[in-house]
Amino acid sequence: MQVGGTLVLLALSVAACARMEPPPGGPPDKLPPSLIATRPDSLSSLANFDGAVEFTFDEVVSEGSQPSMGLGTSDLEKLVILSPSDNVPRVRWKRSVISVEPKEGWRPNRVYRIELLPGITDLQRNRLDSGTVVTFTTGAPLPTVTLSGQVVDWVAGRMVPALVEAVLSPDSLRYRAVTDSTGAFAFGPLPRGEYLVYGIIDQARNLRRDFRDNFDSTRVRADSSTTVAVLWAFPHDTIGPRLQTVTTTDSMTADLGFNQPLDPYQQFDSTQIRIVLLPDSTPVPVGSLLPRAIDDSIQRVLRAAADTTPPADSNRAALDSARLAAEDRLKEQRPGGLSQDNRALLASRPPLFDHLIARLRLAFTPGRQYLVTVTGMRNVNKVAAAESRQALPIPERVAPPPADSTQRAPGDSARPDSTPPPPRP
Asked: How far, in Å, are 218, 287, 372, 413 from residue 272 at the CA level?
């Protein structure tokens, strides 16, 4: 009986030691898990490597609320990038160890890069804000190349975290990494060779380049540390922009909304729009067609000069000056908290827009129906749409235009209309 009791006490002691839990009432654990080992060692050459890459922590880490199912949707799968592979890797949780291996197995003579992103938590939800990378080869020469650069979300007009994909020629091996919060990246080491580098706004957050993602790309030859040109991510639509909405803000103004951003370097003028009164297709003369921000700036100049009667030449100069000032302000209207270099970078290209303002020379007739047709609109990918139409019904009551614009509309920003506007009374 005494021996049996001793064995029971010994078993209970071992079980208590195995749990490794803090005593009740002790101080709460506020420290995140710490990485203490990786397998294999980074920058090792293992021709016959078998098994999984392992990340070992000093405590039990959380598997997350979504377990790994090989779909890339689990909490742990979202924190692992295995390159080069087009498949979601096998990610397994073993209490304090996270193991990773490709579904297709390790291929010979390749350089593999496994990145564990920040975000690992322990059971008390303490988050590790740093990541780590394991790079090794299965027989290929040790890598020496580092690619660095920056990704800009051109549509949003700001620096954001992005996905970088470097496709190595001629085998199309895809190496992937993520940028920091300002879009900057420096990842490696990678094999030497020619790369097609993509900067991707990962909208689905699946660590993959999808056909709907905004991106930019450039080709580089990398033999050592290589700086990649700035990547301005934008939609690469293969069909030109089309009218999506046409609304009125007053009786002489139409707001044209398009289904995608327009080429900011395109010149717009009233020859690209035709408005007719239905049902007899009576043409309505259009004074100007401008991006919304530039039109707003010109209208401010006109309102400020409403009580003056400058000569025609000086009025044209004032409008041109307003247009240039509006373009400069657009470049400066960027989010705060940016470094001087990042502000200068954002100001180096015009912002994207998907709205144009058409100002008429004659007011819309209330209660009638119009047809608006635009031609030659280009998207950022330089693809033009031949023609696009939208009906524009005018309500019985429509707001009158501002007093200073009832008699005329400003000339175009790119070139003057062939028909000069009537003089200001």
From this structure: 33, 11, 11, 13
The pLDDT assigned to 24 comes to 58
- What φ, ψ does residue 313 adopt, rounded to 5°? -65, -45
- Check residue 307 and give its pLDDT: 56
- What's the rounded Cα separation, in Å, for the pair 81 and 209? 13
Give all strands of the β-sheet with 243-250 in edge-to-edge order.
243-250, 253-258, 355-360, 286-291
User: Average per-residue pLDDT in the chain?
Assistant: 85
Q: Does 96 have pLDDT greater than 50?
A: yes
Structure token pair of residue 375: 């031609």
Q: State the pLDDT at residue 193.
A: 95
Pairing of strands 253-258, 355-360: antiparallel
Contacts of 286 (CB under 8 A, 6+ apart): 270, 273, 274, 275, 358, 359, 360, 361, 409
Cα→Cα distances 231→6, 152, 227, 333, 378, Å: 70, 6, 11, 20, 21
Answer whether 153's CB lies under 8 Å from 162's CB.
Answer: yes
Tokens of 44: 């090792």
**243-405 under CATH 1.20.120.1220, yes or no:** no
Residue-range domain boundaries for the chain: 31-141, 143-234, 243-405
Answer whether residue 58 shows pLDDT above 90: yes
Specify the CATH architecture of the domain 31-141: Sandwich (2.60)
In DSSP terms, 184 is beta-bridged to: 150
* CATH class of the 143-234 domain in this structure: mainly beta
pTM: 0.79
Strand partners, 390: 372
What single string gives the DSSP state of each residue in 173-236? EEEEEE--TTSEEEEEEE-SEEEEEEEEE-TT-SSS--TTSEEEEEEEEESSEEEPPPEEEB--
Q: Tell me the Cα Rg of the chain.
A: 31
Three-state SS string across 276-326, please?
EECCCCEEECEEEEEEHHHHHHHHHHHHHCCCCCCCHHHHHHHHHHHHHHH
